[in-house]
Specification:
575 residues; alpha+beta
Amino acid sequence: MAFMERVLVNKVLLDDTVPLTAVIEASQSLQSHTEYIIRVQRGISMENSWQIVRRYSDFDMLNNSLQMSGLSLPLPPKKLIGNMDRDFIAERQKGLQNYINFITSNHILCNYEQVKKFLDPNNYSANYTEIALQQVSMFFRSDPKWEVVEPLKEIGWRLRKRYFLMKCKNQPKDYLVLSWADLGPDQFLQDKDLQCAIKLLPSWSHPYIYRITFATSSESSALVIRPFNEKGTLKDLIYKAKPKDPFLKKYCNPRKIQGLELKQIKTYGRQILEVLKFLHDKGFPYGHLHSANVMLEGETCKLMDLENSLLGLPSFYRSYFSQFRKINTLEGIDVHCFGHLLYEMTYGRPPDSVPVDQFPPAPSFSVVPVLESILSSEACKCGMPSVSQLLQMPLFSDVTLMHSEKPQFKIPTKLKESLKTAKECIERRLTEEQKMMYQHRRLTRAQSHHGSEEEKKKRKILARKKSKRTNCDAGEEQSIKCNNSNNSAGSGASSPLTSPSSPTPPSTTGTSPCLVPAPPPPPPLPSLKKDAPTEPASPSVNGAERGALLSSIRNFRKGVLKKSATNDLSSPTIS
């Protein structure tokens, strides 16, 4: 437990590859300028957000630092007169929001140091070049044979990794490159195992691994020295770039987009797959494949930055494969990264987004099936093929490799177990992150669907139908109550007076009027007395009396009618 606490203190827990998003929430006008209040969020958690205040001049300074990219950035233009007008401020705010969205959606720009400092000054305010120089000086205090020639500014994409051009006094004509980096959030090796693995790096050799001259580590960082290659990396070859130029200038907006020849694609792809299979068979975790980590020596590709996985640094393509739950092993990560590299070799540029379901024409029909097996929607949902399966595909199976160097890659048994444990921890952290992202996407889709206009219309229609059904049910219930009340009253009136079990009908005073007509009154009850007089039966009308009846009808006059003296409701009599 004490070791884990020490590791957490020494390593950088912040994952720099987690994307930042920014929304301008409001603006406030002061005496001479306008400030924009921006809400910045890291990742998917709303709790991991903060506010920053920026002026237009801050945006302008950021834009100037991004000019080396060669991109046409959508920053709203300056305005000297009328820039405090309310309508102009609202319009400028929309333009600045579009500018932020453009930057944060670009995979290279969003990882640029100045962009990180603009959006998150609390975590990215340090001078990493100065820190690296101090660390390097401490490393070489007792070993004066190394000489720092110059810092190679921003040749890499990582904020916490710095490069220096070096010379060794024993070989003054040969230039070397030193890379220094902090321990990252995926560093799960113990101090002794980390130092052992770092010191073994110079002794490892493979025909497709770029050799290391010197490597050492401390409790919080490590440095590695390699030979300097003037031809540069595979990415430099694709983009026709100079190795010493800044990463932003070299790769953000290439002047000419052109893929490699089919023979180069097949040969380089086969060599990279061979070294990946070798590392997986040895149990060495990698996960950092991209074209800038592949050095070229003649017609041979050689993998670099094996120390990244030992130091726990996050992968260049982590923001891509962390979206797919089936890419949850280091082999799957390497295969997915190989798909990005193969796409870049084929078309001269990286894919705009992943997954990719439609591919441009390729130099050979055998290229697209490999890309589809890695970058398509089906592949990202179902999982990556293995490295062995890729080697058996027609694009690489007929490539003949010519090398005579025998690999030297010995890993002690104890270190192999530690590497296996660290690999499992890296995969577990990725799985937990993917699970959170999956749940967030489900919740977002549900909220988006619930708030859509079509869904709102459906809910209104259902509400109306439910309201109508409720009113109908209430009317039917009221009718049933009224019918029950009337039926109860009628049965009480028609029951015999001497019946002791007849219930008293309920009082209807104060009740609401019924919506249905009342039933006709019941017939009069027969008298129970024997001596009561009976009504005479109506005489039948014969043929002799019919004429008199018709004559009476013809002579009928309404004015001679008068009311009857009785109190009943019988018809008026004719006088």
